[in-house]
Amino acid sequence: MRGVLLLLCLVLAVEAVKPPNIIIMLMDDMGWGDIGVNGNWAKETPNIDKMASEGLLFMDFYTANPLCSPSRAALMSGRLPIRNGFYSTNAHARNAYTPQTMVGGIHEYEKLLPQLLKTADYKSKIIGKWHLGHREQFLPLNRGFDEFFGSGNCHFGPYNDVQQPNIPVYKDDKMVGRYFTNFTINKATGESNISQIFLGEGLSFIESQNAAGNPFFLYWTPDATHGPTYASPMFHGKSRRGRYGDAVMEMDYAVGAILQKLKDLEIDRNTFVFFTSDNGAATYSKAAGGDNGPFVCGKETTYEGGMREPGIAWWPGSIPAGGITHQLGTIMDLFTTSLTLAGVKPPQDRIIDGIDLSSVLMSADMDTIVDRPVWYYRGNELMAVRVGAYKAHYWLWTEFGDDPNYFSFCQGQLIPNVIVHDQVNHTAAPVVFNINRDPGEKYMLKEHSGEYKRAMAAIAPIVLHHRDTLVKGVPSLNYCDRAVMNWAPKGCEDVGYCLPVPVSKPKLCYWDH
């Protein structure tokens, strides 16, 4: 009997120290205001809203860049794109990403989250859009993931496979088909079953890793809310918000299915889940895009609408239910916090911008706040910084254009001297807003006011230290070449879908945003 009791104690001790499973749900172009709990009028996200009621809602959660690829690089590395190299120096303050023609990808010297979690015996899978380089050396299985189902690029198309190839879909390290030809998306109707495939892959991974007794990391990053938006027949035409709303409803359904699977397997109390988005909603899509709530502008810009995202943390039994926090959080914090929860030290040989939010997550005191700045970069330029309630714009720029009454990145929003076509340098006297009192960035503080002076007295030394100590990464997003497009990825022979590769002619990429 004593032996049985001893064995039972040992089993319980092992279970007690078992690190939590980690699931990061990263939406694509979903705005802060797209979910009901953040005030969306349609109230079509009951599962996401329930997740917030069972967990912790972040009101002030940010991405690291207002465009997809750099923000994802920041999440995976815990570092600003200016440090990890996911930016371009081809022009000043331009957003860059990884289209099919992109030569570069995430640098080999960057230590990514799945690589580090592997040291604690985690099994990891990415499902959906990778976007950190589509060439073989940059793909997920060569950067720490054990499994992959999805694509290296966004689901743009259809293409004619002559000027451009259709985007490949991978299972692990081999292509198993292409978007539009094998994995169909009806652009005319917005109908596709791809989100259901991604959901099935996620549920299957959770089941298999639980059965094997492995701690796991699931990076679930579907792209149905990125144009051209799509939804499966069960959600097609269901939303009051149109085709984009259909996609949001399907994402909500999938979030609910994943959380329910954790409960059914009785591993919900040992699984940390975080829900967010890669950047703000694409206001240039007009009524076909998302909702950035009370914030000005959207994707591509460093105004609040471009970089403030929905943020929900969920871990029953560890994160108190129903909490709301005004902690300034960033997508890079998911890197550091995940490592902390897994018992893995972040790299010590480089600056990590993500902070550990575990004390905030698990505190019953909603006033628990970790002081930190939030940096707003656009390409190679620091555009703004937030410290506490104050946001200082060192540069202002929305987009190029000639019509003073039209800005595609800020549909229907005109704020004189704030939303501008020219790149305006305000470094000598930054434009400052109290972002708590004025989340729409409409009323700049007067430069000679006491409030302005107090804000800049706190902000200026933080910015000076950041600039003085910044070591920029080698830019990855400068060169493009048609020869590196997805003509003949690994596995194309198995599905009979290899295409002739053109002659290599690398050139500097052109970025107009």
Characterization of this structure:
The chain is of the alpha/beta class and 513 residues long. The chain contains 11 helices and 19 strands. It has helices spanning 2-17, 46-54, 68-77, 81-84, 113-118, 194-212, 243-264, 304-307, 333-342, 358-361, 450-469; strands at residues 21-27, 56-62, 123-129, 147-151, 168-171, 174-178, 216-221, 271-277, 308-314, 323-325, 329-330, 373-378, 381-387, 390-393, 395-396, 424-425, 431-434, 479-480, 507-508. Strands 1, 2, 3, 4, 5, 6, 7, 8, 9, 10 and 11 form an 11-stranded mixed β-sheet that branches. The longest helix is centred in the middle third of the chain and has 22 residues, at 243-264. The N and C termini lie far apart (71 Å).
Overview features:
513 residues; 19 strands; single chain; 24% helix; four-stranded antiparallel β-sheet; 11 helices
